[in-house]
Amino acid sequence: MPASQIGLRGQRFVRPVVDSRPSLFHKYLTAATRILANIVGTKGQLTMTKEPNARERWNRREILGVAGTGAAALAGGTALAAGTVTRHPAAAGAASTSLPGCLVDEGVQAPRTIESEPAAGAWIDLDRAALGANLAAVKEAAGGRPVMAVVKANAYGHGLVPTARTLVDAGADALMVVTVDEALAVRDAGMDVPLLNFGPFDAEAAEELVRRGVEQAIYTEEGIDGMAQAAQRVGEATAPIHVMMDTGLGRVGVPHTRAQEILVAADRNPHVRIAGTLTTFSEDPDFDREQFLRFETACEEATRAGIDLGVRHVASSAGVLDFPDAGLDMVRPGIMLYGQYPNERSRRDRPIELQPVLSLKAKVAYVKTLQPGQSVGYLRAYTAQSAEIVATLPIGHSEGFPPAAVPGGGHVWIHGRACPLVGEVTSNHVEARVPEDLEVRIGDTATLITAAAGDGGSDDAGNSPPNADVLGDWTGVSVYGLLMRLNPLLPRRLV
Ligand SMILES: Cc1ncc(COP(=O)(O)O)c(C=O)c1O
Q1: C-alpha 199 to ligand 1 mean position (Å)
Q2: Which residue puts its alpha carbon closest to atom 5 of ligand 1?
Q3: Which residues lie below 8 Å from residue 97, measured CB to CB, with a gap of 6+?
Q4: Which residue of 240, 368, 427, 481 shows the fewest CB atoms closer than 10 Å?
Q5: Checking DSSP bridges between strand 366-370 and strand 239-246, what pairing results, if any?
Q6: Cα 14 versus chain centre, distance
Q7: What confidence score (pLDDT) does residue 452 get?
């Protein structure tokens, strides 16, 4: 008996609630935010006139979350005053492109896109042209086949809505996500392309998926029933599903040896429609061939039985490069759309025209001169040996900057020069030593990840701006891991 795929008794799926009435708390927060916006100087500092009590400290923390700059604070205040309040991060994500501010409810922030470089704080720049060019390059490598662009995990950290929209505008034929919330955020943002949710769902979510025309990956009888019942409840003729086969990765999917049972069950159920059939390779080139054979064998058997398998798709980025024969009806790349290779072997043996898309930047929050023996960081993480200038950057591990970058010998790039990281990465800060002949001020831009592959120049010492690969080398984290951990709340700017 296969384990149940759908969480029938799991956590309730919560539909986004949009509450248009500002609560007393909101009113208070709005007023306080406005006052603070006047106090907050252009350097993003705040002076308190008296020692705050615990409640004030808590409020100040929340308010400062909005008040990175005076402008942001006012924008946040406007959003609240207008009563544009939502209690659900996914809905907030969808609304983010139209919301002027980032604080949406009692301290819960929503992702947002910004038009111009902020005056303070950290942010992400997304190179729209690079995304489009990568899609075109991948499509060409896949022999012109349709592309299901994988935008799961917040579009690999790039920002789900702006990235998905750019890819759809550039010609992506379909999208894939791994959570119901991501799927609904894509729909809420107005994208009506074919959309596959590869991740889990529960009975309530199933209705929403059917209503919104989201295709659901299925690998158990319970999964089929769940989607079929949802279609009946919401009055749709059928629920679109993709049958996921496990051909050797051993993650999720009906074992290929039992695939016929699920395919037949889906085919016979009048309330579901097989929109696609898929598997995932383990990216071991030899074993991938064996997996492909297993997939093809199962597909042929089903086709002989008269089952329509819909769109067959198996090739992620590595598959597109390593295994062109496995392109089938559609390819399903992720990392290459973001300008990165799935592994070193592919980069070495089968390079295509890819351009990194994401830059991570931060405005210098503070600059100080340390005297010999003075230290920075908790437990005096770094002690200056001589007089040194140190810049503090407002980004830390909570924003997704990897702590291992400091012991790994990392640097950031300010005014075309490498500034070595010192001390430690704390939750919201990291420090960098500034060369003594370099003038750095509060508000100057530091680049922590550059998308400018190769053409960002190098300094006199031969250092170049850090790209995601280099940061990966310093930290021992894969490019996937680095990008996907970037905090969704970092503002994204399309450039
Ligand atoms: C089912 C599935 N398909 C496709 C992809 C895309 O993989 P890649 O980013 O290596 O192209 C992923 C990512 O992990 C995945 O889980």
Answers
A1: 12
A2: 316
A3: 112, 113, 161, 162, 189
A4: 427
A5: unpaired
A6: 21
A7: 85
Distance linking the first and last C-alpha atoms of the chain:
52
Q: Do the beta carbons of residue 293 and residue 300 sit within 8 Å?
A: no
To test the ligand 1 pocket, which listed residue (196, 332, 336, 343) has its Cβ within 8 A of the most ligand atoms? 332
Q: Which of 178, 243, 247, 316 to mutate to test the pocket of ligand 1 (most atoms within 8 A of CB)?
A: 316
**The two structure tokens encoding residue 377:** 């960081």
Q: What is the pLDDT of residues 330-361, one digit of tens each?
A: 999 999 999 999 999 888 988 999 999 999 99
| Atom number of ligand 1 nearest to Cα 318 | 10
What is the separation of C-alpha 476 from the centre of its chain, rounded to a whole number of angstroms? Answer: 20
Contacts of 302 (CB under 8 A, 6+ apart): 259, 260, 263, 264, 267, 277, 309
Mutate to test the pocket of ligand 1, among 147, 242, 280, 354 (most ligand atoms within 8 A of CB): 280
CA of residue 251 to ligand 1 center, whole Å: 12
**What are the tokens at 116?**
């111009």
CA 334 to ligand 1 centroid distance, Å: 6
Q: Is 313 within 8 Å of 331 (Cβ atoms)?
A: yes
Residue nearest atom 8 of ligand 1, based on CA coordinates? 334
* Ligand 1 atom at minimal distance to the Cα of residue 319: 11
Helix (H) or strand (E) holding 14: none
Q: In the annotation, is 152 catalytic?
A: yes
Over residues 150-189, the pLDDT tens digits come to: 999 999 999 999 999 999 999 999 999 999 999 999 999 9
Whether 378 sits among the annotated catalytic residues: the reply is yes
Protein residues with CB under 6 Å of any ligand 1 atom = 150, 198, 280, 316-318, 332-335, 342
Which domains, ranges and CATH numbers included, belong to the chain?
18-110 (no CATH), 128-349 (3.20.20.10), 358-494 (2.40.37.10)
- Choice among 152, 156, 219, 480 that is catalytic: 152
Statement: residue 32 has pLDDT above 80: no
C-alpha R_g of the chain: 25
CA pair distance 129, 495, nearest whole angstrom:
8
CA of 150 to the centre of ligand 1 (A): 7
Output the CA torsion sign for 273, 275, 280, 286.
positive
Percent of all residues in the chain with a pLDDT value above 90, rounded to a whole number: 73
Tokens of 449: 């990840």
Tens of pLDDT along 59-115?
332 222 222 222 222 222 222 222 222 223 333 333 333 333 456 667 777 888 999
